[in-house]
Amino acid sequence: VAVIAIGALLKVISANKKAQSIQSSVTNINFALESMSRDLRTGTNIQCSNSVPPSLPGTLSSSNVSPCNIGYGSFIVFYSTRTPPNGSFGGTCNLITAYAFTGSNPPYTLQKAEQQLCNDSGYSFSDLISPTDMSITNYQLGVLDSNPTGAQYPLTFIRLTGYAGAREKERTYVDVETAVSARSAQ
Description:
By secondary structure, the protein is an alpha+beta fold. The chain has one helix at 2-42; strands at 44-49, 68-70, 75-79, 96-102, 109-114, 126-127, 135-145, 154-164, 172-181. The strands form two sheets. It has a five-stranded antiparallel β-sheet, covered by helices on one side. It has a four-stranded antiparallel β-sheet with strand order 2-7-8-9, with helices on one face. The model has no long low-confidence stretch (mean pLDDT 78).
């Protein structure tokens, strides 16, 4: 009876660890995609870049949208609605934000960088999804100019696949996809 009870207890503990792993990964993915969606919905001059390692420009080109399907090491960069604090050096502008999947082999890391001052290129990328909680094995990130009539409402799509859980036995696999359209014309 004790052996059977211990076996059942071990299965309950294993199921609990897997449930916690799933909850943590879902929370991380939800936060990352919601943050990206919110920023991209209000962003302008959405463009792609393929510099490796990623480094952001001080300004973006004047083209409204740069359609792309991003490969490894590339990123999406755009003007956000954020502006520098009043009285800060560098003038008034909309600050640049970028999202990138980095890494040359799986697992990849989803990162975000934000400008702090106008014409500032001295900022760094930081992880948006914790690599210890979620291993991203594949991704797609791209921008489409979705309106052929002249007013540009770019459509940005994001897809990531991966798993949560360190051991094979406890892994939960995910495949998440979303699309974001700008709220106003570029």
